[in-house]
Amino acid sequence: MSAAMLPKALPAASEDAEEIARMQRLFERQRLAFEAAPYPERAARKAGLRRLIDALRRHQDDIVAAVNGDFGVRSGVETRMVEVMGPMLEARHALSHLGRWMKPRRRSTELLFLGNRAWVSHQPKGVVGIIGTWNFPLYLTLGPLVAALAAGNRAMIKVSEFSPRCTLLLRSMLAECFDEDEVAVCGGGVAAAQAFNALPFNHLVFTGSPRVGRQVMRAAAERLTPVTLELGGKSPAIVGPDADLHDAALRIAHGKAFNAGQICVAPDYALVPRGRSATFAAAVAQAFTRLYPTVDGNAQYTSIITEWHAARLRDLLTDAQAKGATLLRCGADAGNGRQMPLTVVTHVDDGMRLMQEEIFGPILPVLEYDRLDDAMALVRRGERPLSLYGLGLSAADQARVLKETHAGGVTFNDWGWHVFQHDLPFGGIGQSGMGSYHGEEGFRELSHAKAVFRRHRFFPVSLFYPPYGTLVQRLALRLFIGAAPAKPPPAN
Ligand code: NAD
Q: In terms of DSSP bridges, do strands 269-273 and 203-207 run parallel, antiparallel, or are they unpaired?
C-alpha cells in the first residue's frame, strides 16, 4: 500500500508505541488475574455473557453509527443483523448450553483397567488473544469473545486499524461490562497488531487474510501458541443443471451485495451450466437493481471500506476487461466513488486476476461447466474454500458435492446462512483456515480437554510391576495381544 493511499484512519507510529506498551501491561494484568482465579464457575461465566448481551442491546444505535462512520456508508439494518444480533444469538446459544458443555464427560477405560474412572474435564486455557478485521468489526471479535468467556478465559481483542470508531466504541462498551483484567480492547496499526501477535497468549484467534494468517502462525509458533485461523478464499457457487436461474441469481446477487460483497463467505464466483452465463448474468443484474435501484448515495448500500480497497477492485475489472472479459455493470457507476454497483463478469479465464485473488467486493465472475463433475473438478483445482454453495442441485447431487469437494461450510439453495446457525461450527479448511468457533466447537476450541484417569485405590496395578514374567502378566499379554503365529521351519 503506498503512503498516499493509506486511509486517514491509520494511527501514527507514536500512537502505536503507546498502544503496544498498554497491551503489554494489560496482558500481564490478565495473566495474573487468571492465575488468581483459574476456573470461573458457570454462574460467573453466564453473568458475563448476559452483561455482553445487555450492552449490545443498549448500544445498538451507537454501533450502527460507529460502523457507518468507519465504512462511510453501511446499512443500519445490516449492522443490526450481523454486528448486534449475531453476537447476541451466539451468546444466548452459549447461555442455553453452557451447563452441558462444562460437565466433565465420562469415558470408558480399557478393559484391563475396568473398575477405575476416566473422564475429560474442560479447563479454561487462560488469556485468549482475538485479532479481528474491519468487514464485521463487532461480530468477528465478539463471536470469538463469546466462546472465550463461555470457556472461562480472559480475552484481549485487537480491532482492525480500519475500524477506529468501532475500536473506541468496543472499548467503552466492554468496559461497562468487564474489568480490563477480564476483557480488554486494543487498537493501533499493523505494528500494534504484530506486537499483539507476539504476546504469549494461551490461544490466539485470528480473522483475516491467508497472507497475514501465515505471518500470525509463524509468530505464534515462536511460543507454540495454539492458533485458530479464520481466513478467506474463493467460495464457489455452483448453479445446478436444472436450477431456477432467476432464483439462483437473486440469492447470489444478495450474497455479493450484502456489505458490498466484503464478506469472507460471499460467493466469490458462480459456476453455471454451459450456454447459460449470459441469461444468468442478466438475471443477476436484474435482481441486483431490484434490491438496490440506485447505488450512489443509497444509505442501504455499503461502501467499500477505503479508497485503496476500491482502487484494487477497479484494477481487477480493468485487468479482466483488458484480457477479454465482458463486464455487465448493474447500475450507474459513480466513477471513482466508494459505493460500487455489482459488476457481473463473463468470458472469464484463469489468467485474470479476479480468478487468482479473493475478490472481497461487488464483482461476480461467471464461469460455465459441462457436467457437475467438471464444476467440482474446477473447485478442487483451487485452494479449499471457506464456503461452498449449491443452488438448485438435486438431493443426489448435493450429496455428491458434499462428499467430493472440501469447504469450511456449505449452504444449499442460498449463500452464507450456515454461518448464522450458532449450533454449527464456523471455520475453514486448508488455505481458508484451521480450527473453528461458534457453539460447542467454540467452547472446546478455547478450552483444554484435560484427560483424567483415577485409579481405584484397590485396583491391583502393581501386578504389572517388575519383576516381569508373572503368570498374571503372561495371561494378560496373551489375552490382549494374542499369540504370535508359529514361525515357519527354517528352509534347510
Ligand atoms: P488482513 O489479513 O489484512 O488483516 C486482518 C487483521 O490482521 C487486521 O486487524 C490487521 O490489523 C491484522 N494484521 C495485519 N498484519 C498483521 C500481522 N503481521 N500480525 C498480526 N496481525 C496483523 O485482512 P483484512 O483485509 O483486514 O480482511 C480481509 C480478509 O479477511 C479476507 O481474506 C477475508 O476473507 C478474511 N476474513 C475472514 C473471515 C472468517 O471468519 N474466516 C471473516 C472476515 C474476513
A: unpaired
